[in-house]
Design a protein that fits this description.
Blueprint: H1 2-13, H2 20-42, H3 48-58, H4 61-66, H5 80-109, H6 116-149, H7 153-159, H8 177-197, E1 203-206, E2 209-213, H9 217-240, H10 246-268, E3 272-276, H11 282-298, H12 300-322
Antiparallel strand pairs: 1-2, 2-3
Length: about 325
């Protein structure tokens, strides 16, 4: 039944990754046996109301998942999965905020004349700010859950749930058609803009501003054009057949790897050779060229990090596609 599958999916969410398959298989067999016993006792197939009563008797998904987790002292096993989930969200928000400010600071300092000592000192302040912000946020979250653990609010939170309001079933390899359509539209717009606004491979014009590029730009120009066309083709395939396959995931990895290498190479290629605008003093234009190339050079670690994150996400998807499931908890009511 679909309600059972949704219940198992909700329990799986709160379980550790390495134990999910084994625990869900065990819980699925237990629920299946209870369903059969209830049907035998009633002498008829179970209705949705019967299944809802069975699940309510079993307990909320987070409560069931906590029974398979080790005991904790400060935060008990009932609230620990929710505490860990909230702590992960807070950590991601803190790292994202500090990381964004760090990138903006690098871009701002790229055009300023700061010494290496000042640059490393600024990075030290950033890491100190990150640690302080995370520690304060984690301490606040821990304090809130420690208070909940020792009050009756914990019982009310865990018992006030409705099996009919469980999240809908999610197929791990399904691709929303809306996201594929958006990706296709964006890629086609990029192809059109790239072809119309970059007609000259070595000189870019932005009004009265002219930017001269090195000969290496030609490779980047055609490379990005071909990669965008390939990404548009993949989006079209995902729109027509909205689920990930091994071949399409491997193609996605190849596109991401090529695009990441292009951008990492661009940061080190010193691609800008001259900038000219009306009335620009030569020394000022030379300083701007040096600043642009310096800023790109400092963005190299960021480009590498982004490339690694994107590749890791798609490689993990490929591993999940090739991995054979240990056990199917229950077949969905309808596919």
């Amino acid at each position: 039944m679909e309600m059972i599958d949704r219940y198992l999916q909700a329990v799986r969410f709160w379980l550790p990754k390495k134990q999910q398959d084994d625990i869900i298989a065990e819980l699925s067999e237990d629920l299946r046996a209870q369903l059969e016993e209830r049907e035998s006792a009633l002498g008829r197939p179970l209705t949705d109301a019967d299944v809802e009563a069975l699940l309510r008797q079993r307990g909320s998904p987070i409560l069931v998942a906590s029974g398979y987790l080790p005991q904790r002292s400060l935060i008990g096993p009932l609230l620990f999965p929710l505490y860990l989930f909230v702590l992960k969200i807070v950590t991601a928000c803190v790292i994202g905020a500090i990381g964004l400010s760090w990138i903006v600071a690098i871009a701002t300092h790229a055009f300023s004349s700061v010494s290496s000592h000042q640059h490393f000192s600024y990075n030290g302040v950033s890491w100190g700010t990150l640690w302080t912000a995370w520690f304060s946020s984690a301490a606040m979250v821990t304090l809130i859950f420690a208070i909940l653990e020792r009050t009756q609010a914990r019982t009310r939170i865990l018992e006030s749930w409705n099996p009919r309001k469980l999240p809908p079933l999610r197929h791990p390899h399904l691709i929303p058609r809306s996201s594929s359509a958006i990706e296709l539209g964006v890629n086609l717009c990029v192809v059109v803009w790239w072809g119309l606004n970059m007609p000259s491979p070595l000189t870019l014009h932005f009004g009265s501003l002219s930017v001269a590029l090195s000969a290496a730009w030609v490779w980047f120009f055609w490379g990005i054009l071909l990669l965008t066309l390939g990404s548009a083709g993949l989006s079209l395939a995902n729109l027509l057949r909205p689920w990930w396959t091994t071949a399409r995931t491997a193609f996605r990895i190849a596109l991401d790897l090529a695009g990441g290498l292009f951008f990492c190479w661009l940061t080190k290629a010193h691609i800008v050779t001259d900038i000219h605008w009306p009335g620009a003093p030569p020394e000022h234009a030379a300083a701007v060229v040096s600043g642009v190339n310096t800023w790109l050079d400092r963005m190299f670690p960021v480009a590498v990090a982004i490339t690694v994150i994107i590749l890791a996400t798609n490689i993990y998807r490929l591993i999940r596609l090739r991995r054979k499931p240990r056990a199917q908890p229950m077949q969905p009511a309808a596919v």
